[in-house]
Amino acid sequence: MLEKKRIDKSPVELTKKDFVSDQMVKWCPACGNHAILTAVQKVFPEIGYKKENFCLVSGIGCSSRFPYYVDTYGFHGIHGRAAAIASGVKIANTELSLWVATGDGDSMAIGGNHFIHLIRRNIDINILLFNNQVYGLTKGQYSPTTPRGGITKTSPQGTIEHPFNPAGLVMGSQGTFFARVLDNNVKMMSDVMYEAAKHDGTSVVEILQNCVIYSDQAFANIASKEVRDEAQLRLEHEKPMIFGKNMDKGIVLSGNKLRVVTIGENGVKEEDILIHDQYKKDPGIHRMLGRMHPPKYPIALGVIRSAPFNTYDRLMSEQIETAQKSSSIKCVDDLLNSGDTWEIE
Amino acid sequence: MSKNANVVELEDVVVKFVGDSGDGMQLTGTLFSELAAFGGNDLATFPDFPAEIRAPHNTIAGVSGFQIHVGKRKIYTPGDMCDILVAMNPASLKANLKWVKYGATIVLDENNFEGKAITKAGYQENPLEDGSLRDYNVVSAPITDLTKDSLKNQEIDKKFAVRTKNMFALGIVVYLFNQDVKRAVKLVERKFGKKPEIFEANKTVLTAGYKYAKSLETIQTIYKVDAAPMEKGRYRNITGNVATAWGLLAASEKSGRPFFLGSYPITPATEILMELSIHKSLGAKVFQAEDEIAGICSAIGASFAGSFAATTTSGPGLSLKSEAIGLAVMTELPLVIVNVQRGGPSTGLPTKSEQSDLLQSLYGRNGECPVIVIAASSPANCFYYAYLASKLSMEHMTPVIMLTDGYLGLGSELLKIPKVKDLPKIKPPLAKPNEPDYKPYKRDENTLVRKWAIPGTDGLRHRVGGLEKTNIDGNVSTDPLNHQLMVKLREEKVKRVQDFIPEQNVVGEESGDLLVIGWGGTEGALISTVKRMQEENYKISLAHFNYIMPLPKNTKKILSNFKKILVCELNMGQFVNYLKINFPEFHYHQYNKVQGLPFHVNELTEVFKNILEEDKNA
Asked: Which of B40, B236, B456 sits opposite A95 (nearest CB)?
């Protein structure tokens, strides 16, 4: 169970059932969102807060129907504005465990501005970023993460845009927490969500989510059974960055670049492999890990960065406390009578 | 020592201090208004400064001014034409001469009326020598030289010494107004008391200016404006923007809901954001957002989370907030949107005033999207209308757009300080923990208001959002009949606010030849004109509206009692068209001005008389 000083814990033990709402789930059969929903409903009781202290906020898109399906407080917003709405919710009520469900279009196209500024401010909000590299609800247009050349309904000859790498965007925006997971691994998703909840500040969990209709198999090159062992590096704090079918490959720092090596070849020993430190404040290695992708590298999964920095909501509360102690203006009557006033008899 | 100057007693006087942006005219004006206020005068002020922070020196673009209207009677506006102009350089004279009354006193710093300063202002010849000022009573003084001279015994930086010349000008005006120079020094001490050298220098220069004026032969006449008969009580001077900020804070305190502001800086609304930022001791959470949209969206989030939330902006910002206002209408959450109107469209005239966002406020959203719209009409009553906007918003669970304008927001007048305990109660409809049968869209039978269920409260978990919901249960629904029902309910809910607002009052008789109609920031000019004409026995009355959506219940009755109706607005006729939609049975005359300038009393008098004359000629 998680300890966060401001948020009330549940007096009774909760189960997944407690977070299932009475609404019919209307996502496509086999959509990756179903697994994400399962992971959330699994991790919320593990986190252990009172049901009433969870709050889900979303914008627009397939992902953004999420709040209707979880039996907590929820707010389904408008195009791209989930991060802005959530900022207000959390600043106003710091006793909530606040979760944003958003997609690649919602958060990085129409809501890009709010997304980067929320991250920069480090307000204690957990963002579940459903990245399926396509616009689903509007039926198949390219998104800011569609790989260059991707054929979609609005890019019949292939996109001519350079896509965002969400990890790069988050860390470039002074992000303090970034994790990446695949939607086919509920255990890993809920473990990472737990870590996100534990982190003080804005946590971004990028979920590589398969849209069976418009971008099916978009992540086959990393997710499929045949390739996954070689294509995925599952990060764990204080563990060496080793991967591969035989667990004989690893990541080393060579000069100012990461490099894939094979243990036992060219004199590489296990102790040469980089040890993951998710809490390191310096984002240098985290940024490099976030950028890795096949075929040259495996993709990094798990918590890439979880650096401790002060949060906006805590600093604001502190400023208010300081002001309340030092100011002579304690109520609006004091305010109205402050400064130059005079009596007319 | 000189002559015995004549003392002329006046009902009211308009003084304007003008100079280059860095000449300290705002401070001089503020000090003079405080002096008048302490002396018991009623007053209104208006700053007039360029959009540029430091425009080129000695150019018209860089002219900064501060106008004060003081009186021994109720003062409604900062005044049209000035009786006294203090001009620190040629550019400021050139830019303001058209606002100076024939025969008025003009105080000039003659040290600046030479060389390049003259041509940079656009003069061919020195206005002190070309006879263009012959119709005015000119007091031309070497203010810069005399300032330096008065400080020659003090060890201060020369550049700084010159910067105190505004105090010399103030000293002259203090004498011209027969004011107590010691009291003026006290006010300066309050401003600079913490920095003794600066205070000493300002004091020396101010006193020198006063003595200089006293010794001057050219000053034949000095003025006296007696104290105004004002209601007993404690007073302060306040700008509309500060009053708005305080009204919001008062509503938060009274309702018990913590305050949240989500806002983005924009002229001329920024002062509200800045003012609220300094009141963290009252628990105010102020969020300077990344843009206008985040400003309102964060406020909606805070409102959902149980705070009393507001967002503040000006015209272009209101456009950006449109979609989110719809979200607040749909989720039926309290939210006050303050729009300090400026000249539009687009970025338009940022520092000038207009009333051209009315239709946008009423209708500028997708879908059938009614909100309460109310308008403040004086700097001081911004406090009350901000308070009432907040009260209506919270008690009726709906967004309220409060309209002010740059003229109200930046202008000031005296506020009789109220006591928070005397303000009307605010009772937000909070749902209780574990309230049996709580449903998100279950409504009060009379007001149609749903309950405010705050996240974190036991037993009230629910979801709201922008998609249409079923009434009562609040589940997402595209059912045709439910949608029509919800559209009607949202409209009816706002209409029923009519039962909770006061009836419209009429200044003057309830019937007559001409009903003048105005709304919002033009009240001062309209009321001054109508009252003056009533004294001349014209059968003219004024209905000045603060409640626009919904309109007060008795509006139709008032309209039906006059031979003619004239709607005056600083736009192309937005309120008159709204009245035509609501009451098509009447014939409306209209007077519209879109110059970024307020109405002037003389201008309105002529318009009103013309309309009344037509009657006689017909």
From this structure: B456
Q: Tell me whether residue A269 is in a domain.
A: no
Q: Which among B231, B236, B300 is the nearest to A339, CB-wise?
A: B236
How far is A321 from A94, CA to CA, in rounded Å? 14
- DSSP for B103-168 reads EEEEEEEGGGSSTHHHHHTT-SS-TTTSSTTTTSEEEEE-HHHHHHHHTTTS---HHHHHHTHHHH
The continuous run of DSSP H or E covering A233 comes out as: strand A232-234
Going by the DSSP 8-state scheme, the letter that residue B503 receives in this structure is P
Q: What is the 3-state secondary structure (H, E, C) of B259-277?
A: EEEEECCCCCCHHHHHHHH
Query: What tokens appear for A239 in the block?
Result: 């563990």
Class of domain B6-224: alpha beta
> In 3-state terms, what secondary structure has residue B532?
helix
Q: Does B302 touch chain A if contact means CB atoms closer than 8 Å?
A: yes
Å from A81 to nearest chain B CA?
7
Distance CA B63, CA B57 (A): 9
Kindly report, as residue ranges, where domains of CATH 3.40.920.10 are found in chain B.
6-224
The segment(s) of chain B belonging to CATH 3.40.50.970 are 236-422
Number of folded domains that form chain A: 1
Reported as a single tens digit per residue, the pLDDT across A205-239 is 999 999 999 999 999 999 999 999 999 999 999 99
Mean pLDDT by 10 residues, chain B (618 residues): 72 95 91 92 88 82 94 94 96 95 94 93 93 93 95 86 94 92 93 90 96 88 90 95 98 98 97 97 98 98 98 98 98 98 95 95 98 98 98 98 96 96 98 96 98 97 97 96 98 98 98 98 97 97 98 98 98 98 98 95 96 74
Q: Which H or E element spans position A334?
A: helix A332-336
Query: What is the residue range of A110's domain?
Result: 16-218+310-317
Q: According to CATH, where is 3.40.50.920 located in chain B?
A: 512-617
- Give the pTM: 0.96
CATH topology of domain B512-617: Rossmann fold (3.40.50)
Q: Does B264 touch chain A (CB under 8 A)?
A: no
Beta bridge partners of A74: A56, B463
| Grouped pLDDT means (10 residues each) for chain A, 345 residues | 77 94 93 96 96 97 94 97 98 97 96 98 98 94 96 96 98 98 96 97 97 93 94 98 97 96 96 97 98 97 98 96 96 96 88
**Residue at A249 is within a domain:** no
